[in-house]
Design brief:
alpha/beta, Rossmann fold, six-stranded mixed beta sheet, two-stranded antiparallel ribbon, 40% helix, rod-shaped
Length: 372
Amino acid sequence: MTWVDSSLLAVGAALTALVLLGLWSHSRRRRLLAEFLGGRRAMARLSRLDLYRLGLRRAVLLGLAGAALAVAAAEPRWEDAPPPPPPPLKRAILAIDVSASMQAEDEAPTRLAQAAAAADSALTALAGHEVGLLLFAGTTYPLAPPTLDHTAIRFLLGGLLPRLASAQDPGTLISAAIDESLALLEHAPSATPGEAAPRPATPEAPVRRAEGDRLIVLVSDGDVGERDEDVAAAVERASEAGVALHAIGVGTESGAGMMMPAGTYQLGGPVVDARGVPGRSRLREPLLRQVAAAGGGAYAHTGVEGDLRTLHVALADTGPEPEPVVNASAPVWARYDLPFLLGALALVLVALESLLSISLPVLRAVRPREAA
């Protein structure tokens, strides 16, 4: 048993002694009153009360009530059971396509803006887990390793502006994005330097990682510049490493043209092919579905709310609930709050003490009248 404030035990003991002292003083005044009224004989004729008796039952009841309140004030606690293990901690990479095709306007305002919003909602579903950020087009741009500081990740997501995409980097290499994400997952520390992690690993409570605790969330239109076999090989490498792959599709199958914004060292205007004809990018949903299926993850389209909810549930899932830890050595009464039980006991004792002052009426026998 432990105490929240054991110093209150001494204060409670002093108050209990004060109550008993008051009872003794009260009994002394009763005896003086009896002597003043003429002693035992006179009191026997005047009242049924015996002013010479101390009232041991009253003293015991009030003394126990005071002691119970004193112990309750110190807030005793039963020995706590070992704390349950923390939920499994996941490590994820948000890999976002920033190629020129993401400037298509078949998703308002652009595919890139929709991708940033989808990544932000996925970050919300991964609350409490380590999340990193990677951008990719014809090459990869790792921005942050997995971290618990989601505020920093959201700050970086806020920088996904239209001018980020470049006509000089038009390709979409999903295989490179997967391989770079695997590298980030393999070499990332448990927490960024100087970061106050809410669930640090300690010998008493180590960070738990469940099966499938590492994952990659690809956000892309699937309009790749590589063979499907290369993508499938990268997905296989991720599966062998025990990393789950989820995919979020952006865009429409009908597609749209791409308009590059003007910026420093970049001329704005429509994206054209080698013949000077404006290019048209279309969503390749079958490829993204295949990536998610082969990677053991879920697929969602930004325009289908039900798909996104299913994906968020899959991202937030921490596996089966840990079995509750039961302290087998604890007694049955340890389930209840001890200060509450002591307070209730004190109230019962005070109520019993008040009943001692109640005198039941005595029925006197009625004598039959004698016949005249």
